[in-house]
Amino acid sequence: MAAESPNSARKVVVHLRATGDAPILKQAKFKILGTDKFAKVIDFLRRQLHRDTLFVYVNSAFSPNPDELVIDLYDNFGFDGKLVVNYACSMAWG
Amino acid sequence: MMDVLHWDGTLSAKDFRIGAFAFAQKWESRNLAFPPWSWLPCPKHPWLAPPKEEGYLSLEKICISRPNEEEDIDQISQIETGEEETCCSGNEDVLDDATLVQSNHHELHYCDFQIVYSSTFRVPVLYFRAYCSDGRPLPLDEIEKELPACSSKELSKKKWTFITQEEHPYLKRPWYKLHPCGTAEWMKLLFLSDNANPKFEVVLELYLLSWFSVVGQVFGLRISFKISD
């Protein structure tokens, strides 16, 4: 798992992974501040894919709340130095 | 032994019961800020064959009113990201939300939740009803004001096709529920996307936890994922 770092400006590598019939992004890897909320990743995905309704989740079959901090998600679900975030375009509801 | 690769994302009634107990246990150990879920047996109907230990999970009187300070923080973080189209709402909507919260500041709203098995869709369904501290039921448009901004936006776009009101299958009173027809599909995605081939027992153990991580977001409810095991 990640080494402890007191540096609050620490960045997390996020790898966006298309699942189901979702389009694959050309730019699928980026860095984000650990102190940012997961909402920022969701926003980014929505803008890149031009879709409002996305189903977003991480390993261990978990869909993070947009208020979660990216660093917390990385500490719990990250491996190999990155946080893999899966996305699908199926409707979550209905 | 079920082959998870060919699994359709659904549960049998028996598996729902197992999954529900596993969920309630994890919830109790991780969610210290919330009361535990109770398992209630389904009331027996004299005209049906006795159900095999059917029941549902119940969580009562959860305060869903959000404090003013939280609303202000959301507003600030959205502006600072410098994005024109934010996840939750445009600037106008954020200002409206803040005004609404202030006017409802003194009245707290509560919600009862139930996780009920749907034999039609073979998945859990979240039922809920909200009310004021004096017990007065809240209609959906009032409940909507308490939801995180992302949820309200989804609701307003889909115009009530996202949440429906119906008679509760067991309690026979009007409750709202989140539509279950997409559930199997996204439950499959949740478990099968990372090329791991989990055993079905593992899937069952985690099923409701994963399910709740999605549906709980409508209400801003979450379970701590900081796993100690």
From TrEMBL, chain A:
BP term (GO), one: autophagosome assembly
GO molecular function terms attached to this record: Atg8-family ligase activity
Domain of life of the organism encoding this protein: Eukaryota
Matching CDD domains: Ubl_ATG12
Family matches, as Pfam families: APG12
Keyword Nucleotide-binding: no
Keywords associated with the record: Autophagy, Isopeptide bond, Ubl conjugation pathway
GO cellular component labels: Atg12-Atg5-Atg16 complex; autophagosome membrane; phagophore assembly site membrane
Annotated family: Belongs to the ATG12 family.
Binding partners and assembly: Forms a conjugate with ATG5.
Role noted for this protein: Ubiquitin-like protein involved in cytoplasm to vacuole transport (Cvt) and autophagy vesicles formation. Conjugation with ATG5 through a ubiquitin-like conjugating system involving also ATG7 as an E1-like activating enzyme and ATG10 as an E2-like conjugating enzyme, is essential for its function. ATG12/ATG5 conjugate has an essential role in plant nutrient recycling.
Protein known as: Ubiquitin-like protein ATG12
